[in-house]
Design a protein that fits this description.
Blueprint: H1 16-41, H2 45-59, H3 67-98, H4 104-122, H5 125-135, H6 148-187, H7 195-209, H8 212-222
Length: about 220
């Protein structure tokens, strides 16, 4: 099996049709380069990675777990949460399109539908109303009338709000430990000893005893239910 040869060259177009085709290819390459970021923002990745980052800061473990571990875990949890959506897209959109049973426009509309259902389920009405008002589009009568370009930023803002709320709840028990340790050190007159040095082992002990990873990951995944 030979390796295909791909040549990319630039020359003066002889007619407008060639120019339009070249512009379409350029736009396609641009979209493909941004596709991973676009797809990530339309999934559960934002909430998961922000919550895990808050957890690391609450534990005060500096760079443990490392960024690569947090991002990798967030990606695999995203695949787990979004699995039903991907299966729907593969069954009703990608599969028929690859089999040449539907055209490109139909495939895109079918792939968009389950993503919109997921985003609507996680988007607050207040955030959606805010972006509808700022977009100055006609007030939609149903969810089908809401443009996708309005739904996506509303979904992202809602995800950030939810992630910050979960992060606040994660901080509380560790904040109490920090306050108790700081009070004890002050009562003992050990002003120069950083409370974080003493509180870190107690935070880790508490996190292990309550099986923190199971609680955090389980709560994160169930929050998308």
């Amino acid at each position: 099996m030979g390796i295909p040869n791909i040549n990319v060259s630039m020359a003066n177009g002889n007619n407008p049709t060639e120019t339009v085709a070249a512009l379409r290819i350029l736009i396609l390459f641009t979209v493909l380069s941004l596709a991973p970021a676009i797809l990530i923002m339309m999934t559960s990745f934002t909430r998961i990675v922000v919550v895990l980052s808050f957890l690391r800061q609450a534990l005060a473990t500096q760079n443990m777990p490392p960024n690569q571990v947090i991002i990798g875990l967030s990606l695999f949890l995203t695949f787990f949460v979004m699995a039903p959506v991907w299966q729907d897209i593969n069954t009703n959109s990608l599969g028929p399109y690859m089999a040449e049973k539907i055209d490109q426009g139909t495939a895109i509309s079918r792939a968009e539908a389950p993503l919109r259902v997921f985003m609507f389920k996680q988007t607050r009405e207040k955030d959606l109303s805010l972006f509808l008002e700022m977009s100055r589009v006609q007030k939609p009568k149903t969810r089908k009338d809401v443009p996708t370009w309005v739904l996506i930023p509303a979904f992202m803002v809602s995800e950030l709000k939810t992630a910050f709320q979960i992060g606040f709840m994660l901080y509380l028990p560790f904040l109490i430990i920090d306050m108790v340790v700081a009070s004890v050190l002050m009562a003992m007159g050990m002003m120069m000893l950083p409370p974080v040095v003493i509180s870190l082992p107690f935070k880790l002990l508490l996190f292990v005893l309550v099986d923190g990873w199971e609680l955090v990951i389980g709560s994160l995944v169930r929050s998308f239910g």
